[in-house]
């Protein structure tokens, strides 16, 4: 089949993202309420803070703001992870970053499947944080073997989905009809199932080891456990959730409130208790929740080091993990500590703390002579810069979201068990370095500026 007959992976991803959102709204009506709240807050911010709206127009973020979503799933075996990677590849999504959550008491390690080029992100920024259960961290050998045997019996992909994945790999793409069939079939992997694959006793054994283990092992597939819209003001969302019947978690994860946000801030509503049918009786399970994110500047290695130092210092002073009992003190300490991180884009750029995108200005494009350096172009007003948006995740924040929805008794001690090599072996490919991707994107924007400003008059 000619390549021009194929639907682009970016458009398949956009279709899948829209279909996933519709499915999740039907499964979790509170998610629809959350989307409405986020949309209203975003409109208010754009109206009241014109500098935010202007920055979004420069970067093109304004067009994709209502598309911003990430999902999260948890798979149980290496084979499931490898196939989910192939499924996401059909949609132009590649594994970026390695996250070890075991040190925070969650027995998984993870990556984020997402588009990696700024043009692909502009079309559809959909990403899925994907975690692999670490059976080797289950300390009871009998329970570990029970979990393994249960997972080995399930098939989380439909036969047609597997066929279309293979077809796309062999032919180089999918035509329109096959692309739509792929979206429809792939959705089945992420659906919620009210029927468990285990008895009530087996579920309880898994649950007692760790709630997340029960969530991964006891069901037919890796149901999407949250979808996440992007807000421009997460503090307003946190305050507004209770009035809409949405109980928020106690603490916003990530950096504090800033004029120029950095990295990623996240909050969520608590996991729903849902009725399920075990193989021998009726019961309930809590897993799915609603999450909201506010994305800021992608930080350089220097910026990440400063961020990590300030976050660690805050938690050291707090003397424990942020929770409902110490939420106010934690947020106050966080704001105080992070005064050491410049809240000014020019300073962040000059100090090499963040990555940026560069744009030729109308003045620059009209000028007959150009300064020879990037700094000169910026000072002359020929080039404008905005922070590159952080497209990835923070291990501490991800663990905090997981734990807040598992309950206080969901805590466990696993120590630090990072094993990127084992994860990549299970996945069947190497995960990409997110910092290298940001550096490449920044470099491309500078090169595009230089070309645009030095183009000869015709």
Could you explain the architecture of this structure?
A hairpin with a 4-residue loop joins strand 7 and strand 8 (282-286). Helix content is 48%, strand content 14%. It is an alpha+beta fold and 458 residues long. The mean pLDDT is 89. The chain has a five-stranded mixed sheet with strand order 2-3-4-1-5. It has a two-stranded antiparallel ribbon with strand order 6-9. It has a two-stranded antiparallel ribbon with strand order 7-8. Helix 2 packs across helix 3 (50-59) and helix 13 crosses helix 14. The protein has helices at residues 9-27, 29-48, 50-59, 61-64, 78-90, 118-123, 141-152, 159-171, 176-190, 200-209, 211-217, 234-240, 301-318, 327-337, 345-350, 362-366, 374-379, 395-404, 420-427, 434-453, and strands at residues 69-75, 94-100, 108-114, 127-133, 226-229, 264-269, 273-277, 282-286, 290-295, 356-360, 383-387. 43% of the residues are buried. The chain starts with 8 loop residues before the first helix and ends in a 5-residue tail after the last helix. The protein has a single domain, classed as 2,3-Dihydroxybiphenyl 1,2-Dioxygenase, domain 1 (Roll).
Strand order of the largest sheet: 2-3-4-1-5
The number of helices is 20
Q: What is the CA-CA span between the terminal residues?
A: 40 Å
Please state the overall shape, judged from the principal axes of the Cα atoms: globular
Number of separate strands: 11
Q: Which percent bin holds the helix content?
A: 40-55%
Total number of domains: 1
Q: From the 3D coordinates, which CATH architecture would you assign?
A: Roll
């Amino acid at each position: 089949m000619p390549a021009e007959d194929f639907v682009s992976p970016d458009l398949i991803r956009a279709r899948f993202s829209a279909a996933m959102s519709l499915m999740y709204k039907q499964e979790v009506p509170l998610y629809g309420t959350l989307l409405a709240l986020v949309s209203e807050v975003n409109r208010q911010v754009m109206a009241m803070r014109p500098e935010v709206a202007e920055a979004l127009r420069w970067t093109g973020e304004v067009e994709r703001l209502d598309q911003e979503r990430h999902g999260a799933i948890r798979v149980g075996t290496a084979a499931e992870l490898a196939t989910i990677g192939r499924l996401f590849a059909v949609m132009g999504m590649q594994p970026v970053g390695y996250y070890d959550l075991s040190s925070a008491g969650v027995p998984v390690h993870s990556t984020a499947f997402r588009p990696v080029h700024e043009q692909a992100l502009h079309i559809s920024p959909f990403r899925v944080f994907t975690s692999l259960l670490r059976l080797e961290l289950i300390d009871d050998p009998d329970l570990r073997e029970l979990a393994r045997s249960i997972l080995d019996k399930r098939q989380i992909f439909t036969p047609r989905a597997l066929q279309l994945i293979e077809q796309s790999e062999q032919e180089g793409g999918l035509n329109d009809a096959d692309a739509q069939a792929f979206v429809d079939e792939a959705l089945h992997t992420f659906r919620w199932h009210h029927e468990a694959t285990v008895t009530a006793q087996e579920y309880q054994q898994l649950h007692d080891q760790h709630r997340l283990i029960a969530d991964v092992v006891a069901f037919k597939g890796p149901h999407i456990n949250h979808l996440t819209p992007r807000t421009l003001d997460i503090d307003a969302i946190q305050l507004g959730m209770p009035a809409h019947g949405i109980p928020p978690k106690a603490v916003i994860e990530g950096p504090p409130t800033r004029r120029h946000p950095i990295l990623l801030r996240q909050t969520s509503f608590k996991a729903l208790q849902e009725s399920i049918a075990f193989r021998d009786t009726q019961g309930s399970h809590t897993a799915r929740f609603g999450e909201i994110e506010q994305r800021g500047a992608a930080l350089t290695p220097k910026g990440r080091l400063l961020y990590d130092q300030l976050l660690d210092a805050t938690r050291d002073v707090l003397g424990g993990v942020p929770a409902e009992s110490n939420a106010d003190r934690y947020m106050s300490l966080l704001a105080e500590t992070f005064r050491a991180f410049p809240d000014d884009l020019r300073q962040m750029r000059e100090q090499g703390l963040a990555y940026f995108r560069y744009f030729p200005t109308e003045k620059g494009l009209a000028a007959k002579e150009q300064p020879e350096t990037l700094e000169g172009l910026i000072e002359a007003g020929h080039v404008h810069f905005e922070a590159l948006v952080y497209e990835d995740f923070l291990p501490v924040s991800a663990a905090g979201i997981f734990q807040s929805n598992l309950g206080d008794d969901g805590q466990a001690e696993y120590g630090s068990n990072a094993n990127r090599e084992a994860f990549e072996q299970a996945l069947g490919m190497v995960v990409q370095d997110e910092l290298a991707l940001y550096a490449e994107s920044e470099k491309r924007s500078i090169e595009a500026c230089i070309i645009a400003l030095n183009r000869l008059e015709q």
